[in-house]
Amino acid sequence: MKKTLLAAVLGACVISAPAMAEETVKLRVVGQPLATGLIQKNVEQPFFETLQEKTGLPLEVNYKPLDTTGIKDVEELRVLKSGMFDLVSLRLSQVSRDEPTILGLDLVGLSPDYKSGRIVADKYSKVVDARLQERFNTKLLGVWPFGPQVLFCNHPIASLSDVKGLKVRVYDQNLAQFVESVGGIPVPLGFGDVHQSLALGVVDCAITGPSSANSAGWPEVTTHVLPLAFQMALNGYGVNLDTWNKFTPEQQVTLQGAFDTLVDDIWTYSEELFDDAGRCNVGATPCDTGTSYKLVGVQVSDSDKALLSNGVKEVSFPTWSEVCDKTNAQCSADWKKVLGESVGF
After folding, report:
1. How many structural domains comprise the chain?
2. Tens-place pLDDT, residues 303-322
3. Quick one: signal sequence residues (predicted)?
């Protein structure tokens, strides 16, 4: 009798285990803002809308762009930690206010091109992931770029030094310190406020990627563009660990693989957009993804490149490490261990 009862219990467990693994997981997803342009529209949103079909995982995905949720980008890590949303397309520069370790991915001058940016992202994302898991109950699924952030001005410029005395829109403290170091006046502004601020003279210049600027119409209210890559504007996908742990180990491998492919696709598409939008903004051809404008394209000089490169050791790293080490004692030491050699530390 006892043997029969035990066999029945074990049999019930075996039968119920697969059912538990196949229970539908509801993913409440916050994406990039609609205003950021083509990566959100053409790559990110279609990925989430077809994620269940492509992976075969038991998912129910509810995707909402950030600017339709009422949530501010600076709140994204708090939203993830609280469980209000399960997965967020993190705007890393903005959320670095809550976790300064993140900004080590994208210090001003660290990544002058896509190749170096990908190396930095692949190496340092492991450090960021460990920190997010520890403090925000969040797993980092991947890191990708909007692309090199360049300078748009409604004031004639011929080099980086010409921003002296000009008001320049910035989006994080690291960039603000660098702009200040070359004589500019940093003005923190959200992306959605920049077009009007340029038009009204609240700022003279602003920094963003060529494609985002094109999508938002910045060339309508500017005259010059200096294509010097200040930062890569890295972003990432974070998932709440409680949600992640609802999946079996095999399902986690499948889901991570889907995000690995997405991240690779965005790196490729971002570079294509950067090249094309760079042509569109100055009226060159081909211009396939944006609106053609007639900005003056300023030639990047060797002295501009040197000024930016030297800025890592002289401005952006010291500025960031002082802040980061206050909340994470190993912050700058971990960064130097992973990336220091590449910039001459």
Report:
1. 2
2. 999 999 999 999 999 999 99
3. 1-21
